[in-house]
Amino acid sequence: MPKIDRREGEEEEQKKKEGPQAESAPKGAKEKPSPAARKKMVEMLTKEKEDLYDRLLRLQADFENYKKRIDKERQEFYHYALSEVIREILPTMDDLERALQKSDSKDFESFHRGIELIYNNLRETLQKFGLQPIKAKEEIFDPHYHEALFLEETDQYQENQILEEYQKGYMLKDRLLRPAVVKIAVKKKEPQAQKPEKGEDEPPESVQ
Questions:
Q1: Cβ neighbours for 52, distance < 8 A, ≥ 6 positions apart
Q2: What are phi and psi of 100, to 5 degrees?
Q3: For 49-58, how does the pLDDT look when each residue is reduced to its tens digit (9 = 90+)?
Q4: Where are the beta strands (DSSP E) in the chain?
Q5: Domain 132-191 in CATH: superfamily?
């Protein structure tokens, strides 16, 4: 009689006990996750979703800030694009203004009116672009808008009050094109008391 391996017999007995379901189960089949594992997975996916949503909100906010910054820069460029051109025109306005000041004679009345008309038209044109003169005479000196060329010691005016304007200053909207060149008042220096010379206060020697 052929010998029967005990192991093979035990395997056949085990298969009979397990039935056909054990044979039909595919090898390597994964078990269903437990409720705790499913809950943990849901929490992980929810957190990942919230993180992605927060990143999206931050990106949208950054993009909106970028758009605002670009719009502001574009507006500033539009407002100040002519600043260099206007700065070059200002000396012409200075010459016209000086010509008006020196042509007060009646012989030049028609000439004066013509120059005045040109000056006013040019000034109004530049004002449309936001050019405004800086107040100077009788104002208090402000180093942000005025440039002191001369100082005058006096007690008749407030200290740092502008006495005279030599060249007009101008603003282009809220930007300084050039400061006003002025003369300002300063307090007079008090004269220092002279010290008496040696022996001046000594009593005269008695005559014997």
A1: none
A2: -65, -40
A3: 888 888 888 8
A4: 131-133, 146-153, 162-167, 170-172, 175-178, 180-186
A5: Head domain of nucleotide exchange factor GrpE (2.30.22.10)
